[in-house]
Write a structure and sequence with these properties.
Elements (H helix, E strand, L loop, with lengths): L12 E5 L3 H11 L3 E8 L3 E9 L2 E7 L32 E4 L5 H10 L8 E3 L6 E2 L8 E7 L5 E7 L21 H6 L4
Parallel strand pairs: 1-4, 5-9
Antiparallel strand pairs: 2-3, 3-4, 6-7, 6-8, 8-9
């Protein structure tokens, strides 16, 4: 499938806000191994730093002198998926997922834990009623593990296990009341 409106080349960058830029640089360079590739001083003493995630895609952080304090459970997830509540407010960023090779999954989990990063359980995402299987099987479409950065940003390492297909789009969108509207059902060819 291609975008017929705009030629998008993937993600340019995601910009987050940190409490301590020095701590953020340490985590993303020394723990996750990303290279710091651009630093910007912004007005009022702020900073804007960019890390290379690979494939010409970047993770950026702002540091603002008078930024509001973090609000877990509102602006960020309060718990790890599979462990606690992950719901967040409208217009928040729930988590940031990094694509990893499937064959490196277990190695990367062990490496994070060796670096002192607490990871959640391995989640084998499938189309079961619960959406996650205890064991890996042919119906799993992505394996993932979640962890927090020093500011409480929820991060994910995810490994696709198969190509996505047309039948992977099997649910109609709901409105703000949680109801499938007749407009959505009609547009999707469902009654």
């Amino acid at each position: 499938m291609t975008n017929t409106e705009f030629e998008l080349g993937g993600l340019c960058h995601v910009a987050l806000v940190c409490e301590d830029m020095e701590r953020t640089v340490d985590f993303y360079t020394n723990v996750l191994g990303m290279k710091l590739v651009k630093t910007v001083a912004i007005p009022n003493g702020g900073q804007h730093f960019f890390f290379d995630m690979g494939c010409e895609q970047y993770l950026a952080f702002f540091w603002f002198r008078d930024a509001p304090k973090k609000a877990p459970g509102v602006a960020s997830a309060a718990g790890l998926p599979g462990v606690g509540d992950i719901s967040t407010a409208h217009a928040s960023m729930n988590h940031l997922s990094f694509k990893i090779p499937l064959e490196k999954f277990d190695e990367y989990k062990a490496k994070l834990e060796a670096k002192g990063v607490r990871t959640g359980p391995v989640l084998n995402h499938d189309d079961s009623e619960r959406g996650v299987a205890a064991e890996y099987h042919d119906g799993v479409y992505v394996r993932s593990m979640y962890f927090f950065d020093p500011d409480g940003v929820l991060l994910e390492f995810a490994a696709w296990t198969r190509e996505l297909r047309e039948d992977d789009v099997a649910h109609l969108p709901v409105n703000k009341e949680g109801i499938v509207s007749t407009v959505a059902a009609g547009a999707a060819g469902h009654e």
